[in-house]
């Protein structure tokens, strides 16, 4: 009877062992398959990307959290007013633009944050951008070929000029020299802006600028606009002084001011040189 029971138990034990082996083999197969198809940019917990994100988090906590919140959720000042907006979802391109142009960190809040020399190095800017990008999806820093216009054709420059005059001149004027906007704001001059930051500005819409996403403006159209702006930057002022490249308005204004000033000066000089007529003493008009 015992022999019969042991014989009956052996197939059961063998079945359990076989199932365990099958499950183990399946897990190993899945792990190898995942390792084979894992993207090249994926890194482990101690990989370069994680180290860069951690460095960005540290920099953010020291230099940005006082306005934007410890976790980039946005912050308020002591009076309950918004000190810094949430950065969750703005993407790496927005961080790269704002920090590389020195607009961030801001000295103080205001209607417009001016451009100034950057505070962080290129490596630190990349770390901050990587940290913000890790919080939520957003526009990434564009690849160099997206804004490289060194080999742009004349046709692309002309098409970019048409697109620029249609979409950008209302704020930046037709020569890209900037202009005033309501409530103390202004559109900055584009004469010293790099192609990379022009692309990122269109992609992210900093401050009051609208967002020109790829669904609104195609990447090749953005590149054409950059080619036109670069041609403006390389254009020389034939008259010597650009005067904002505003055309006859600024030229006429300066001509009027200088001309009227010269006429007033000459009139005063002539008046000072004319001798005055003196009356004889002891005679009155009634005598």
UniProtKB/TrEMBL annotation:
Keywords: Cell membrane, Electron transport, Heme, Iron, Membrane, Metal-binding, Repeat, Respiratory chain, Translocase, Transmembrane, Transmembrane helix, Transport. This is Cytochrome bc1 complex cytochrome c subunit. Binds 2 heme c groups covalently per subunit. Residues 51-136, 155-233 form the Cytochrome c domain. Heme c 1 binds at residues 64, 67-68. It is a multi-pass membrane protein. InterPro entries: bc1_cytC-su (IPR009152), Cyt_c-like_dom (IPR009056), Cyt_c-like_dom_sf (IPR036909), Cytochrome_c_Oxidase_Subunit (IPR050597). Heme c 2 binds at residues 168, 171-172. The keyword Acetylation does not apply. One of its GO terms (molecular function) is heme binding. The chain crosses the membrane at residues 253-272. Its EC number is 7.1.1.8. The cytochrome bc1 complex is composed of a cytochrome b (QcrB), the Rieske iron-sulfur protein (QcrA) and a diheme cytochrome c (QcrC) subunit. It catalyses: a quinol + 2 Fe(III)-[cytochrome c](out) = a quinone + 2 Fe(II)-[cytochrome c](out) + 2 H(+)(out). It is an enzyme of class 7 (translocase). One of its GO terms (cellular component) is plasma membrane. It holds the Pfam family Cytochrome_CBB3. It is found in: Cell membrane.
């Amino acid at each position: 009877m015992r022999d019969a029971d042991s014989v009956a138990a052996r197939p059961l034990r063998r079945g359990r062992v076989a199932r365990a082996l099958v499950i183990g083999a399946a897990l190993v197969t899945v792990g190898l398959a995942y390792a084979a198809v894992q993207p090249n940019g994926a890194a482990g917990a101690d990989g370069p990307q994680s180290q860069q994100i951690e460095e960005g988090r540290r920099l953010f906590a020291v230099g940005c959290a006082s306005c934007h919140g410890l976790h980039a959720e946005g912050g308020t000042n002591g009076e309950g007013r918004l000190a810094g907006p949430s950065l969750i979802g703005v993407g790496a391109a927005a961080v790269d633009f704002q920090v590389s142009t020195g607009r961030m960190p801001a000295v103080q809040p205001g209607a417009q944050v001016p451009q100034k020399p950057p505070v962080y190095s290129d490596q630190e800017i990349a770390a901050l951008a990587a940290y913000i990008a890790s919080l939520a999806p957003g526009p990434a820093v564009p690849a160099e070929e997206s804004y490289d216009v060194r080999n742009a054709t004349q046709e692309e420059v002309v098409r970019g000029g048409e697109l620029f005059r249609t979409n950008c001149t209302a704020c930046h004027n037709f020569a890209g020299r900037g202009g005033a906007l309501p409530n103390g704001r202004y559109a900055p001059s584009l004469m010293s802006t790099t192609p990379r930051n022009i692309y990122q500005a269109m992609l992210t819409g900093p401050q009051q600028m609208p967002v020109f996403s790829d669904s609104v403006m195609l990447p090749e159209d953005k590149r054409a606009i950059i080619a036109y702006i670069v041609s403006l930057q390389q254009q020389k002022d034939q008259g010597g002084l650009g005067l904002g490249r505003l055309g006859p308005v600024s030229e006429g204004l300066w001509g009027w001011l200088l001309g009227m000033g010269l006429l007033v000066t000459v009139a005063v000089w002539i008046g000072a040189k004319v001798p005055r007529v003196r009356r004889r003493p002891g005679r009155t008009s009634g005598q």
